[in-house]
Amino acid sequence: MKSSGNASAQALYEKAVPPYYYRPQQCDCNVLREQWIRAKYERKEFTGETKYPPVSYTTGFYEGMLWKKGKENTQFLKRKFVLSEREFTLMYYNKENESKGPKAVISIKDLNATFQPQKIGHPHGLQFTYQDEDRTRNLYVYHESAEEIVTWYNAIRAARYAYLKTAYPTGSNEELIPKITRNYLKEGYMEKTGPLQKEPFRKRWFTLDSQNRKLFYFKGQLDAEELGVIFIGTESSGYSVKACVPKHARGNRWTCGVSVETPERQFVFMCEQEREQREWLEALRKVSSRPMAPQDYTSEHAFKALQHHVK
């Protein structure tokens, strides 16, 4: 870089970065940033030269072992995962004996992958989230090798990109690339009370998925399935977000309130600190102030129909 300057070095080492390959930002975790540098300068993956064997995430098929957290316990066990771009599926097997077939066949259509090193407690921790009938399901995995886990991440991104190109043939890269995978806008613990606001407050883990306009809540931060979900619409549709003081404070230890009003009911949450309260208000308002896209109305309608069915 000293001899040729940053621009010409970039022109050489980033000549052929695939559109789906994730280019890390300043705020991203270490494993993504380090592997981006190694892929560019050590392995020279993006110079445009033909590689043999080809780089794993470019082949449309990937398989290997990942450590996966059990659904009902905290134990991580080795499981075989198989990604197929042609089938648009990610499968995993519970036992060495594959003759029994996969434990789960996950559609690439609804799959998200996001690095969660702090939450999972491993520097290479990766969270998969997907739709399992009417529920959202989380899988938590890691691999000891930094290169391997980032290869898995970009192989999934490649399959997602291929799916999006098929689903939205006229979509530009500018429109499609942000939809490949996403980090969640905000996560953390808040206390939650019930619909009458007289029920005891209980500590819950919350995840705000801004792309889907949904606020999920779980009993614990590594739960496989949510306890509930709240759709966040716009103010003009009867949704609002504001700071509040609860009418009844049974069982709550925290005092910084957040109120989310939907056309159906009011939700009251309590944060431990004012900083957390500010961050949640800002994140939720960011979603509620964004105009609804056509697919958001479809999602809201499906969500309300499901809630009515559950009741």
From TrEMBL:
Instruction: Name the Gene Ontology biological process terms.
Output: heart development
Quote a single Gene Ontology cellular component term: plasma membrane
A GO molecular-function annotation: GTPase activator activity
Q: Which SUPFAM superfamilies match?
A: ArfGap/RecO-like zinc finger, PH domain-like
Q: Which Pfam families match?
A: PH
Report the subcellular localization: Cytoplasm
Phosphoprotein among keywords? no
- Domain of life assignment: Eukaryota
Check the record and name the InterPro entries matching this protein: Arf-GAP_dual-PH_domain, ARFGAP/RecO, ArfGAP_dom_sf, PH-like_dom_sf, PH1_ADAP, PH2_ADAP, PH_domain
Principal localization? cytoplasm
Q: Where is the PH domain?
A: 59-161, 183-289
Metal-binding keyword on record = yes
Per UniProt, the keywords (alphabetical) are: Cytoplasm, GTPase activation, Metal-binding, Repeat, Zinc, Zinc-finger
Q: What is this protein called?
A: Arf-GAP with dual PH domain-containing protein 2 isoform X3
Q: What is the originating organism of this protein?
A: Stegastes partitus
- Give the taxonomic lineage as stored in the record: Eukaryota, Metazoa, Chordata, Craniata, Vertebrata
